[in-house]
Amino acid sequence: MRWSLLTAISVSPALLFSFAGFGAAQAPDGIRVSAPVTHENLTVYFIHGRSAPGKVPLTLDEAMAKRVVQVRETGNVNELEIENLGDDEVFIQSGDIVKGGRQDRALVVSLVLPPRSGRVPIASFCVEEGRWTARGREDAGRFASAAQGVPSREMKLAMKAPKPVPPAGDPLRSNPSAIAPETLDALRGLPPSPQRSNPNAAAATETAARQREMWEGARSTRARLSGALGADVSSRQSASSLQLALENEKLIEVQRAYIKAFAAVGEAESDIIGYVFAVNGKLNSADVYPSNGLFRKMWAKLLAASATEAIGHKDEPRVEAPPIEAVMAFLAAAERGTESNKPLNDGVSLVTRESEQAYLFETARPASPSSSWVHRNYLAK
Predict the structure, then answer these.
(1) pLDDT per residue as tens digits for the range 114-125
(2) Among 82, 69, 59, 38, residue whose Cα is nearest residue 280
(3) Pairing mode of beta strands 79-84, 373-380
(4) Which residue of 76, 264, 306, 371 is most buried, as measured by CB atoms within 10 A?
(5) What is the CB neighbour count within 10 angstroms for residue 143?
(6) β-strand partners of 165
(7) C-alpha–C-alpha distance, residues 329 and 46, integer Å
């Protein structure tokens, strides 16, 4: 069976749990944001609320470590294939980095992969320029792990934020096929293929633009980390690999103090279902889950990515961390933002809410006894 990655995703706005109306530390439905915890230039606020019942899915890194999920190459930089061979659901988060294959990739969508899913296509962006062969002894056709998440708000926006329609007079608006297929392939990192068809040049052009932004984001992240640490984080094995840069020993050493400051706090209470963080006093993003169990499973990866982002910006000017009321206002504004639905396939769409200062991206699935939604990601503009 070839099951589409989005057949298990639906959007039910009426079932959203809303942050709208936040004006005090205690929200009407018992959801609250606790007092901030700060280390160096990273400040974390924990979101507390009801935890959905039911079995907690495996995370992608858990499932790949157990070899019950396989992520494979398709020959297309911007699409991989994933298959759940096991009997448990598997949670995949937007921004998960899969290591190996022909190039390390970041996965675009959050979803729950059902048991025995069959082969599922999943959108991806390259976070390693130039390579299109096996790296060392790695399998060029498959990916080995998913231990890291994208540590950059800008890169997350590049993957998901809506793109404006080209202005009147732009050749892409009047004639999107003006971009040659081979040009698009080059931008996407594909090997030359003059015979490649280009049935949807507008979509391909948008994908190519996002891929360029992802490469720029990976380069910027490596450069910032190298500057902050006083040592080049790029790997000799593949200088452009963001994944290998995140494995740099000096970076991991500096991360330890951040992790020590926050790790236990995130596991101290059984009603924590998400967190918000600020870097240098500026709100960055938030992630919220249906259950404390899933948040706990994701917490180590989330914290490592947040710490990495903070380390990359540690030499920049700082301001006082915002109060809880400002955090609530940030979440509420995104919740009340202008809604758009992006059709994906099988009649399913991804809901995006855009306010003046932030985005809210929500992935949902058909209503179940536990929860109708999978993951909420808030990103400051």
Answers:
(1) 999 999 999 999
(2) 38
(3) unpaired
(4) 306
(5) 24
(6) none
(7) 15
The token pair at 79 is: 């699409």
pTM, two decimals, is: 0.85
Strands of the chain, DSSP E: 32-33, 37-39, 42-48, 58-59, 69-76, 79-84, 90-92, 96-100, 105-107, 111-113, 118-126, 143-149, 272-279, 282-288, 338-345, 348-354, 358-364, 373-380
Q: Which helix (DSSP H) or strand (DSSP E) does residue 325 occupy?
A: helix 324-335
The Cα–Cα gap between 366 and 107 comes to: 22
Vertex 32: Cα angle to 26 and 36 (nearest 5): 110
Query: Which uninterrupted H or E stretch holds 149?
Result: strand 143-149
Scan for tokens 């962006």, then name that residue. Answer: 125
Q: How far from each other are the two terminal CA atoms of the chain, in whole angstroms?
A: 40
Comparing C-alpha atoms, which of 27, 26, 34 is closest to residue 268? 34
Kindly list the domain boundaries of the chain, sorted by start residue.
Answer: 13-162+206-380
pLDDT, tens digit (0-9, with 9 covering 90-100), for 52-100? 999 999 999 999 999 999 999 999 999 999 999 999 999 999 999 999 9
How many Cβ atoms are within 10 Å of 145's Cβ, its own excluded? 15
Q: How large is the average pLDDT for residues 362-377?
A: 75
